[in-house]
């Protein structure tokens, strides 16, 4: 039987650790830009096998949206887009079981977009990450 892909985003795949977040933004991370999203990512060693292979952070600045309702809308769109397309990333990470990738999706625009445009941007950014990991 073929392995069924799960389209979930459990708590362990969310980047919450303050030390890992600092490591991501202060360390030797790489950047990719796919308008209206900027992606910051870094490959690190996994501590144990129970650790998720990819941890994700979604950030929408108060500078762009003063109201939390719009910030939350954009974060929901980003999370949903990542959730649907994370298989692009997990297929490559399966080849390297001792590594883990930390990813931050940062919103760059002052306006909201429909979910299709956000999904295309997230998918393109994930493909760029995979291309850089394969090199």
UniProtKB/TrEMBL annotation:
Enzyme class: hydrolase
Keywords attached to this entry: Endonuclease, Hydrolase, Nuclease, RNA-binding, tRNA processing
Function statement: RNaseP catalyzes the removal of the 5'-leader sequence from pre-tRNA to produce the mature 5'-terminus. It can also cleave other RNA substrates such as 4.5S RNA. The protein component plays an auxiliary but essential role in vivo by binding to the 5'-leader sequence and broadening the substrate specificity of the ribozyme.
Listed name of the protein: Ribonuclease P protein component
PROSITE patterns: RIBONUCLEASE_P
Quaternary structure and interacting proteins, as annotated: Consists of a catalytic RNA component (M1 or rnpB) and a protein subunit.
EC number annotated for this UniProt entry: 3.1.26.5
A biological process term (GO) from this entry: tRNA 5'-leader removal
Family to which the UniProt record says this protein belongs: Belongs to the RnpA family.
Catalytic activity: Endonucleolytic cleavage of RNA, removing 5'-extranucleotides from tRNA precursor
Presence of keyword S-adenosyl-L-methionine: no
Domain of life: Bacteria
GO MF terms, alphabetically ordered: ribonuclease P activity; tRNA binding
Lineage, uppermost ranks: Bacteria, Pseudomonadati, Bacteroidota, Bacteroidia, Bacteroidales
TM ranges: none
């Amino acid at each position: 039987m073929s392995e069924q892909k799960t389209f979930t985003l459990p708590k362990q795949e969310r980047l919450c650790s303050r030390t890992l977040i600092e490591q991501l933004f202060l360390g030797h991370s790489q950047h990719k830009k796919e308008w209206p999203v900027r992606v910051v990512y870094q490959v690190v060693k996994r501590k144990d096998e129970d650790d998720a292979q990819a941890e994700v952070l979604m950030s929408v600045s108060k500078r762009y949206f003063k109201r939390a309702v719009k910030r939350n809308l954009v974060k929901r769109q980003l999370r949903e887009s990542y959730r649907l397309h994370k298989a692009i990333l997990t297929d490559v990470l399966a080849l390297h079981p001792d590594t883990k990738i930390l990813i931050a999706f940062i919103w760059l625009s002052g306006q909201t977009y429909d979910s299709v445009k956000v999904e295309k941007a997230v998918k393109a950014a994930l493909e760029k990450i995979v291309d850089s990991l394969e090199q």
